[in-house]
Amino acid sequence: MKKKLISIIAAAAVAAACMPAYGATPIQELKDKGVINGFEDGYLHEEYNLTRAQAITIILRSTGFDDSKWYKAEIDKFTDVPISHWASGYVYKGVSLDMVNGVSDEEYLPESNVTYEQALKLLVCLLGYADESLSYPDGYINKANDLGLLKDVSAEIGEELTRGKFAALVFNAINCADKDGVKLVDALDAELKDEYDEYEEYEMYPTGAGMVYEDGAASGTLVERASDTSLRGGGGGSAKTAASAAVPSIDGTEHIPEIIIDPEYPDIDYPDQITPGQLTAGRWSDYEHYDFWEGLMQNQEYSEMQRKWEIPIDINRVSPDPDESEDILDLMFTIDTTGSMGDELRYIKEELKDVVIRLDTNVRLSCNYYRDTTDSYTVKSFPFTTNVDKVVSQISRQYASGGGDYEEAVDLALLDSVNEHDWSVSARSRLLFLVLDAPPHFTQEVVNNIQIAVNSAVEKGIHIIPVASSGVDKKTEFFLRSLALATGGTYVFLTDDSGIGYSHIEPTIGSYDVEYLNDLLLKIIKEYIGQDYDIQIDDPEPTDDPVVTEEPEEPEETEQPIPTVEPIETEEPTEEPVITEEPTETEKPEPTEEPEPEGETEEELPEG
After folding, report:
1. Chain-centre distance of CA 184, in angstroms?
2. CATH code of the region 280-316+328-528
3. The whole model's pTM is what?
4. Under DSSP, is residue 12 helix (H, G, I), strand (E, B) or coil?
5. Nearest Cα to Cα of residue 347 among 398, 403, 408
6. What is the tens place of the pLDDT at every residue in 192-234?
């Protein structure tokens, strides 16, 4: 009896330690944290039931995970949860974490209402306490009670939970410590503030033309670009201290940043507002014009530029995209963010954001950023996601800084992009846009890294599409074209027609059209996934055919850049269904009943 009393007191102490006082209802608290959504009528409708798909969605969002089409190739798919299902990402993420399983090997029943015991199993697993010793459902219910998850919640086995009761269980769970002693609410808050410390503080400093932030100081360092110097090519630049001035920091204290003059860069006069549809570009596919490429390789100078990197080119190795594939596109942007990209990066960001927003297909996005090995980061990578808003926000927060020499860590960025991301094996296409203005360092290790990345890309069916910015020289051009040719990609290059940024070399190719970069990228993407490109474009005038056997002269600077055209208005893309909403009727919908054969035991009920 004494032993039993002690265990009851201990369980009560755990529950009391877990539970804060409610300042509002649990469902309102979760709404404030972005875990659960309201309805179009403005109400949360606590009395509605919620489905198994909605339940796993809310639970995973409580940890900061928010991706409606997260994908992992080796997970067996349920027939009733295709990748196109609005909650497929949450369901399969739950499967990968051993938090949830189906009612059978083939069915998950995403639209069936979640029951009391299913919800408790999910939450116990979320906190890391699930093991084989826990029986279903009694073992999970007892464990949930020990953890304090049942505070202010009254329900019975088999009961289909309302949104209000389920929210109370989730709220209790995220305010408890998991098995490692970490409160989930702290992890959630940290996820919601992802990148805040680095980028919000950076944005607080007043910047004008020619000012960028240098890495290194805890609160950021300003870099001033002098305007009385000549243009230079790609790569970062060195810095020299000039002056300092106090500015407020995030915590309210004053910070005196180091203002640095970099003589390598001229002043950049950015407009107050940058809109997409300004940068101009062309494209050339050596894969489609292989005879032309072979002709170039007869020129010793060009041949040496290609052989330098030992990139294995065999167009017979390039695998076409699968004929039978899932209705999803894997799209990655890997972007050089060193200081020399400062003349065009702000424009490029707007072009890429416009492309992402205008895509009208199921797409998984990943944006990755790199500098050099001596900078604050070498590669900053983000996993694939279908959260377009999150990707657009990430792109917006990038800025040019660092570098120090012409070459950058291109090889490490490629290795990460190709091998450290969960590329779908059955996507309609896998595209890697590499945006840069400088080559890799030239060492044997780097050459080996590039060979590994290219071979892996070919094996995975990833098409590398370089986007050459200002500063790319002729040797870098052939390096990038080799990457594209080896992987079945195409070569994209910015042109001087826009009048934006430093000068761009003329590529050694056949005839091409000059187009606006955002429209061109969207056209390329649609070509790879087999969609018609039916958007009307005002193309700038095409250039003349350059001489292919000699170094082309630098194009003369145009007196007036091509006027900016406003991007064509399209309909707003259809939003993903709100993941926690039931139908918008004011009346409570009829619950979905799960068929229960006679004589079914409690252990045979669908688990969470």
Report:
1. 23
2. 3.40.50.410
3. 0.58
4. helix
5. 398
6. 554 444 433 333 333 333 333 333 332 233 233 222 323 333 4
Listed in sequence order, the DSSP H helices in 488-602 are 517-528
- Between the alpha carbon of residue 218 and those of residues 209, 249, 370, 373, the distances in Å are 23, 10, 20, 19
Q: CA-CA distance, 373 to 504, in Å (whole number)?
A: 26
Structure tokens at 141: 């219910």
Report the sign of the C-alpha dihedral through residues 46, 48, 54, 55, in that order: positive
Tokens, residue 159: 């009961």
Q: Where are the beta strands (DSSP E) in 478-551?
A: 491-494, 515-516
The pLDDT value given to residue 399: 79
As beta bridge partners, residue 452 has none
Question: What parts of the chain have a pLDDT lower than 70?
Answer: 1-23, 73, 187-272, 322-325, 404, 532-608
Q: In this predicted structure, what is the pLDDT of residue 561?
A: 45
Residue 342 pLDDT: 76
pLDDT digits (tens, 9 = 90+) for 393-412: 888 777 777 776 788 999 99
User: CA angle, corner 310, sides to 305 and 316, nearest 5?
Assistant: 105
Query: Angle 444-460/474-487 helices, nearest 10 degrees?
Result: 30
Evaluate whether 555 touches 506 at the Cβ level (below 8 Å). Answer: yes
Burial class of residue 139, CB neighbours in 10 A (0-12, 13-18, 19+): middle
CA distance 469 to 480: 11
Burial 105-135 (b: 16+ CB within 10 A, else e): eeebbbebbbbbbbbbbbbbbbbebbeeebe
What lies within 8 Å, CB to CB, of 291 at 6+ separation is none
> Degrees (nearest 5) of the Cα angle 55, 91, 428?
145
Concatenated DSSP letters for 390-413? HHHHHHHT-------SS-B-HHHH
Contact 177, 20 (CB under 8 A): no
Cα pseudo-dihedral 525, 529, 533, 539, rounded to 10 = 30
Distant-in-sequence, close-in-space partners of 594: CB < 8 Å, separation ≥ 6: 103, 109, 112, 113, 606
d(CA 383, CA 129): 27
Q: Give the integer Cα–Cα distance in Å for 76 and 195.
A: 33
Q: Are strands 329-336 and 429-436 parallel, antiparallel or unpaired?
A: parallel
Residues of the chain with CATH 3.40.50.410: 280-316+328-528
Choose among 123, 182, 115: nearest CA to 148. Answer: 123
The DSSP code for 591 is P
Whole-number pLDDT of residue 447: 94
* Contact indicator for 181, 174 with CB cutoff of 8 Å: no
